[in-house]
Specification:
By secondary structure, the protein is α+β, with helices and mostly antiparallel strands. The protein has one domain: Hypothetical protein af1432 (Orthogonal Bundle), CATH 1.10.3210. 56% of the residues lie in helices and 11% in strands. It has a four-stranded mixed sheet with strand order 1-2-3-4. The radius of gyration is 18 Å and the shape is globular. Bound molecules: fe (ii) ion (FE2) (2 copies).
């Protein structure tokens, strides 16, 4: 507990919050873990540290390619790291509950309100139900989050019990997110094993996510494109 207080003071003294410091906050890591366990119990795919680290890595890549300031890179990384903690109170509206929880946690860490507000806005708007995109940080978080589809997100071991989310994720053999700065394009490239899941299944569950990614790319002055098995679909 004493260590946490000292750590908070350190953030305050430096007047700048860092992702690498947030990664070490025990309470935040506990919430990520518990939120993932909650989602596992109700049958959702992985939302634990594998997902969080993938989204954070992609957010940092997008921020770098789009020449965000050092401060904005840190804020975007923190928003990515904390974006799914709200799942600990239930899946519905988790983006909003997560943003309120992040507000409290970051306040206790003495983070400046101007920084907190941008982080919680990004967390609150990362999901389809509540997706007004007002900040580039929110936009890259949406693109990074919605692009995380992969076989290792599936928890169910018994294929006969797969639901459509399991099938689609399990079918994805490879996934990459690319930014082409010259033509201002963002590409999500997927390799799907269509013997496991037809491409149509992908659209059934991911269409709203792809449309949101398109909207987010527009906010950044980019276009969003989707390629599945060498076919350009968007
Ligand atoms: Fe989420
Ligand atoms: Fe997520």
């Amino acid at each position: 507990m004493k260590k946490e207080i000292n750590f908070a003071n350190q953030i305050c003294d430096n007047n700048m919050i860092k992702l690498n410091q947030i990664r070490k906050v025990k309470d935040i890591n506990e919430l990520i873990q518990q939120a993932d366990e909650y989602l596992g119990a109700i049958g959702f795919t992985d939302h634990g540290f594998n997902h969080i680290n993938m989204v954070t890595k992609r957010v940092l890549m997008l921020a770098e390619k789009m020449s965000f300031s050092e401060k904005d890179k840190e804020l975007a990384g923190i928003a990515a790291y904390m974006h799914d903690i709200g799942n600990v109170t239930g899946r519905k509206n988790h983006s909003v509950t997560g943003s309120i929880m992040a507000f409290q946690l970051l306040r206790e860490l003495k983070v400046e309100m101007s920084n907190i507000s941008r982080i919680i806005t990004a967390i609150a708007s990362h999901d389809e139900g509540n997706s007004e995109i007002t900040d580039p940080i929110s936009a890259i978080l949406i693109i990074a989050d919605k692009s995380d589809v992969r076989q290792s997100r599936v928890r169910e071991k018994n294929k006969s019990k797969f639901d459509i989310h399991d099938r689609v994720n399990f079918a994805v053999q490879n996934s990459s997110l690319l930014v082409i700065q010259g033509t201002k394009e963002i590409w999500l490239n997927l390799e799907i094993d269509t013997s496991i899941s037809p491409v149509l299944d992908y659209f059934e569950i991911f269409l709203s996510r792809m449309l949101l990614s398109k909207k987010a790319a527009q906010k950044l002055g980019y276009t969003f494109h989707l390629k599945i098995n060498s076919s350009i679909l968007a």
